[in-house]
Each structure stands twice: as C-alpha cells, then as structure tokens.
Amino acid sequence: xxxxxxxxxxxxxxxxxxxxxxxxxxxxxxxxxxxxxxxxxxxxxxxxxxxxxxxxxxxxxxxxxxxxxxxxxxxxxxxxxxxxxxxxxxxxxxxxxxxxxxxxxxxxxxxxxxxxxxxxxxxxxxxxxxxxxxxxxxxxxxxxxxxxxxxxxxxxxxxxxxxxxxxxxxxxxxxxxxxxxxxxxxxxxxxxxxxxxxxxxxxxxxxxxxxxxxxxxxxxxxxxxxxxxxxxxxxxxxxxxxxxxxxxxxxxxx
Length: 254
Fold this sequence. Notes:
With 254 residues, the chain is an alpha+beta fold. It has a single domain, classed as Aminopeptidase. The chain has 7 helices and 7 strands, in the order E-H-H-H-E-E-H-E-H-E-H-E-E-H. It has a 7-stranded mixed beta sheet, sandwiched between helices. Strand 6 (198-206) and strand 7 form a beta hairpin. The longest helix is centred in the middle third of the chain and has 26 residues, at 115-140. It starts with a strand and ends with a helix.
C-alpha cells in the first residue's frame, strides 16, 4: 500500500470528518456517549465536523499536531485521499506545569444529547480526568506526548495506516525522550502493545443505577522501554518524517 503521512491542513476538514464519522463508532465510548447519532445524522455530522474544526484550530499552535495518512483511492488509483488521522498533544517547551488539554477535550456541547447522555459524558470526562492526573500527569508531568485519537477509515483497514501514524509518534517521542500516553480503545490496543505500550490503569465508567458501562485502558510508552522489532523498524521508517514535523513546527513558531 502506497501510504504517505503529513501534517493536516485546514483544507482536510471534510476528510477528517469523513474518517471520524466512519471509524469512531468502532470504539465503545462513542456509541455510549452518542446513542442517538443514527436517529439524528445531520446534527451528529454537524457537530462531528465542529469537533474536528476545533482540533484543526488547536493544531495551528505548536502545542498540538494532527498527522494524516494519504493513500491512493480505492475507486481511482490516480487520486490520493486522506484515509487516516492521529491527533497529538505536544509537550510545552518551558511549561509552567499547566496542562494543555485543548486538543484533547471534546466539543463542549452536543444538542442531540438527552440529560441522561449528558450525565454519561460528565461521568466519562471525570473518570478520564482523574486517571489522567493520577497515572499520567503525576508520573510524567507536562512532559508527555499525548495521543488523543488514532483513526483509519474502515474501507482502508488492514493496510498499515494506523501503524505508520503510530510509528511517526514513537519516532518523535524517541528523538525528544518523551513518554507517550493514550487512553486506548479495543481497535488499537494490540497495536499499542506491539509497540511496547504498557497498561497503567483500566478506566471504568458507569452511571449510578444503570447497567451499561465501558472500560478502556490508560497506556504509556517510555523511551527506556525499547521494544525490539517494532521500535527498530519505527526509527528507520519514520526518521525522515520528523523532518516534516520540524519544518511544520518552525513555520508555526515563525
């Protein structure tokens, strides 16, 4: 598969929305948070687009970057399209300890939520925030590369898209000596394990008096946890991509 990755552009908004709408429902937290998405597709599509527009805005600063993967279209090999994405929170240089969560937080409101779904959202945010502070922030401080989202359009599953996007992040973290933290969904859990991520906590969210609940692991990769095969491949295949990142960061700083 002829894949290439690059920083996202403002013009990629439609592609990011297309990927998110198709891929994110495979992760259990999204049907849990938005159970009526299928009943209100126009509203759901609208606010998914808002979510990615906010992430793109955050990525216009040096503190967040969205990397996208491009592939020849399945319909026309002469056309290249964006088929995967990863959203990263970059550690602040000279940070005063204040956490930068802009590119991690969800869109603050969603009009199709009923009060019970908003309760689930509040409980989920509280659970994640508590685990973030105890297992990530108290251990690594603000000097962590946080992966907010890793997604591939389902039509392009199994082609190495997520692997390439993760390779880029691991190569950057290795170069800068940063740990990587992520709250993992089941789709990418085994991929993270292959790269040497370790599970630090399992976050369980459940609203009082309801049977439905979700659980997902908080995982971390550390530079000292060099993982054999995948890490060596990562360094060789992703090194040249860091030049793209350095150029992108320099353009933002300038």
